[in-house]
Amino acid sequence: MSYGGGYGGGAGGAPKQDDHAIMEQVKSQLQMQMVQEFYQTVRDKCFKVCFSSPGSSFSSSDQKCLSRCMDRYQDYPR
Amino acid sequence: MAAPDQQVSPELQQFIARESQVAQIQSMISSLTEVCWDTCIQSPGNYLSSKESSCLENCARRFVESTQYILQRAAHKADGSSSGF
């Protein structure tokens, strides 16, 4: 995902090199935060779906349920 | 927001990484508490019954395992293909 648009220069013209580095870091951190929040949501939704009565082990059918749920949750916005 | 890496000392970077990790774990525990309460406690009594206790224990463990499983699977997928979802 890209954050589009140019960055307006200050009164002096082109942004300084330091500003560019900070801009890139901000974009990167925002992106990471977004991805993290996405997977937390996936975790919350899919746990509720797959573990409505939590058992005493994490079985392979539990894993399959989580995998399926993850894939569907990622598919559907398209 | 953090300054560019060149201006941040290694000690400060380590501090940020550690504090971020602690915050993530606290956030997971907070979510876990809410979800497992909803799952296991229907009508709060004067104490936790053994049924409620064992449900909460199972729920907490499965929640942590699910979190790890989902993050590992997501990282694995990210390795194999370009980023973006």
From TrEMBL, chain A:
GO cellular component assignments: mitochondrial inner membrane
Record localization: Mitochondrion inner membrane
Keywords: Chaperone, Disulfide bond, Membrane, Mitochondrion, Mitochondrion inner membrane, Protein transport, Translocation, Transport
Taxonomy, superkingdom: Eukaryota
Compositional bias ranges of the Gly residues kind: 1-13
Family annotation (InterPro entries): Tim10-like, Tim10-like_dom_sf
Entry's Gene Ontology BP terms: protein transport
Membrane topology of this protein: Peripheral membrane protein
Gene3D superfamilies per UniProt: Mitochondrial import inner membrane translocase subunit tim13 like domains
Residues covered by region (Disordered): 1-22
Annotated ranges, domain Tim10-like: 25-75
Quaternary organization: Heterohexamer.
Purpose: Mitochondrial intermembrane chaperone that participates in the import and insertion of some multi-pass transmembrane proteins into the mitochondrial inner membrane. Also required for the transfer of beta-barrel precursors from the TOM complex to the sorting and assembly machinery (SAM complex) of the outer membrane. Acts as a chaperone-like protein that protects the hydrophobic precursors from aggregation and guide them through the mitochondrial intermembrane space.
Family affiliation: Belongs to the small Tim family.
Entry text on domains: The twin CX3C motif contains 4 conserved Cys residues that form 2 disulfide bonds in the mitochondrial intermembrane space.
Protein name as catalogued: Mitochondrial import inner membrane translocase subunit
Gene source species: Tetrabaena socialis
TrEMBL record, chain B:
Family per record: Belongs to the small Tim family.
Membrane topology category: Peripheral membrane protein
Keyword Membrane: yes
Comment, domains: The twin CX3C motif contains 4 conserved Cys residues that form 2 disulfide bonds in the mitochondrial intermembrane space.
Protein's cellular compartments: Mitochondrion inner membrane
Function comment: Mitochondrial intermembrane chaperone that participates in the import and insertion of some multi-pass transmembrane proteins into the mitochondrial inner membrane. Also required for the transfer of beta-barrel precursors from the TOM complex to the sorting and assembly machinery (SAM complex) of the outer membrane. Acts as a chaperone-like protein that protects the hydrophobic precursors from aggregation and guide them through the mitochondrial intermembrane space.
Annotated protein name in UniProt: Mitochondrial import inner membrane translocase subunit
Record keyword Ligase present: no
Domain of life: Eukaryota
Biological process annotations from GO: protein transport
Pfam families named among the record's database cross-references: zf-Tim10_DDP (PF02953)
